[in-house]
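$ ./design --mode recover --in tokens.txt
reading tokens...
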């Protein structure tokens, strides 16, 4: 299962990471978010040791969501060296997410 990022651990786990990080901004009530949840979990397992894959519940962690201007969910942000290097919005196929992620690894 993907890592749970929160307002409290975001800096340490995402911004200070030495690996590329994929962050899925989601909410339990969001249908498209539930559609890509299994994909995010698969990527977490498949890329373990190569990238950090996790999720931010926007209802419980509004500070992080606001700081990065997340207005629509699901939004996937890719971080490298503490900076956002790519953004994907909506329920996208696994191949498209993986291609974007690998282009930054």
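writing sequence...
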């Amino acid at each position: 299962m993907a890592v749970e990022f929160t307002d409290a651990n975001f800096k340490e786990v995402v911004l200070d990471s030495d690996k590329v990080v994929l962050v899925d901004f989601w909410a339990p009530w969001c249908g498209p978010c539930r559609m890509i949840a299994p994909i995010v979990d698969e990527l977490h397992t498949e890329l373990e040791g190569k990238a950090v894959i996790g999720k931010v519940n926007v209802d419980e962690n509004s500070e992080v969501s606001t700081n990065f201007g997340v207005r629509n969910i699901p939004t996937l942000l890719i971080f490298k060296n503490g900076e956002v290097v790519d953004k994907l919005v909506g329920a996208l196929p696994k191949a498209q997410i993986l291609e974007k992620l690998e282009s930054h690894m």
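exit 0
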